[in-house]
Specification:
Strand content: 25-35%
Shape: globular
Number of helices: 5
Helix content: 10-25%
Oligomer: single chain
Length: 289
Amino acid sequence: MCRLFGLTSAPRRTRATFWLLDAPDSLSRQSHRDPDGTGLGYFDAGGAPHIDKAPIAAYHDRAFAEEAREVESATFVAHVRFASTGSLDIHNTHPFEQDGRLFAHNGVIEGLDQLDNHLGEDRSLVQGDTDSERFFALITRETRRHDGDVTAGIRQAARWIAANLPVYAVNLILITPRELWALRYPDTHDLYVLERPAGGQHGSRHLDHSGSHGRMRIHSAHLADQAAVVVASERMDDNPHWRPLEPGELLHVDPDLHITHQIVLPDPPAHQLTLDDLHPGAAASQKAA
């Protein structure tokens, strides 16, 4: 299953070190369940987006594969990919960038020919062949139609997909230089949020999150003295305040770390997919590690 991670410390910038694919497994074990790509998105001090990503195929010799980068930003999004749609190619590796925003997705959307027809000329926003980037293009178009209102863009795009296309899951994280959005839909995959005060629950510690499956780790000494909001596919430490997003819940963290949330999709998808409905590759990508 793809792993999502997002963090915002806005309006202050945070220096953080990310490790992706930090799993101490033998190559023989990795070859059965290793990710198909890793990516990290963030913004420089001028607000320009940066993406560091690579398609890493499971059949490559990459025992103890690790990518570590120390970067500074007010917002981050990271993704570890298990391919369900699209080849192992840099253009299919998350995060994606459109209109200066960064986006990562976890799930499966089918009916892509219908989605392409609905996108029309906005299909040109898509450089790869994933369902995820098409979904992002629809969000981008709806955001433009709503005068830059990203919340409305996500809501309208997700509602159209839920009503018209076969859906397994559409969990997402989207960031701008100072804002973060997250959507969980439907109840297929978990997505958690943690409102972290400076120093964490003990008031004096830096941030050091590690996923239980060893796919992702983040360390930030800066967050010993500044607050942050974290969104992740799994609880990444023993903090008791991790909260699962409700199915259909859209979360927004504004430039001052104020959180709003709303249920934008109260009903299940009109065409809900199960694992049995997916082709074998897609089904394997959606199972928990």
